[in-house]
Design a protein that fits this description.
The chain has five helices and eight strands. Strands 1-2-3-4-5-6-8-7 form an eight-stranded mixed β-sheet, sandwiched between helices. The chain has a single domain, classed as Gcn5-related N-acetyltransferase (GNAT) (Aminopeptidase), CATH 3.40.630.30. Strand 5, helix 3 and strand 6 form a beta-alpha-beta unit. The chain has about 200 residues and is α+β, with helices and mostly antiparallel strands.
Length: about 200
């Protein structure tokens, strides 16, 4: 991946500010990422017991993989989330269902909140979904959260993810779910109907 601090996607949220997504810069971002993934709240990320060096190695391997990329999300210039995008057909997940060429996996980790902001996690989540669907080569977003991660299941369903089945991955029992542009759009319409 080209080394750049340039945002590749941005979205303004009224009353909150501007979210930007940019490629990770390992040498300058890794301590922030380590701080996030080593906290108890990030237990489903699977890195609680890892050292800074081990976390750096893991993300170096991701960045060396042309089918898997990591991004830092910023709010008004401050790092507030991490997201990963990976091509399912080149991942172990392709062994668990009939993967399509335009299926892309998504991982999301929101930084611990210093100040509670209403709907913050939803704003992060919807920004990431909209980034994925801004890419012409993405038809469907695929997630495989731990079956016990109730918070992410709530967000997934709110965004229109359709749950398919439970699968046993090497590191966890996961729920396989899919989101298309249409299901996301329908979910947003339903949310707007509730608000109005």
């Amino acid at each position: 991946m080209v080394s750049t601090n340039q945002a590749i996607f941005s979205k303004e949220i009224e009353g909150l500010g501007v979210f930007e997504i940019r490629p990770i810069q390992l040498e300058t971002d890794i301590e922030t990422v380590y701080d996030w993934v080593s906290k108890p709240y990030a237990k489903y990320w699977g890195m609680n017991e890892q050292s800074l060096e081990e976390v750096h190695k893991a993300y170096k391997e991701i960045e060396d993989d042309r089918f898997h990329h990591t991004y830092i999300g910023m709010l008004n210039g401050t790092p507030v989330f991490l997201t990963e995008r990976y091509k399912i057909s080149e991942d172990i997940l392709a062994n668990y269902y009939d993967a399509k060429p335009y299926d892309y996996g998504m991982h999301v980790l929101v930084a611990p909140a210093e100040t509670k902001i209403s709907q913050f996690t939803w704003h992060v989540f919807s920004t990431i979904i909209e980034y994925f669907f801004s890419l012409s080569f993405v038809d469907r977003v695929v997630v495989e959260p731990d079956i016990h991660n109730e918070k992410i299941h709530v967000l997934n369903r709110k965004a229109g993810f359709v749950y398919d089945k439970e699968i046993q991955l090497p590191e966890k029992k996961a729920a396989l779910a899919f989101c298309t542009r249409k299901s996301y759009k329908n979910a947003l319409s339903a949310l707007n109907t509730i608000k109005s």
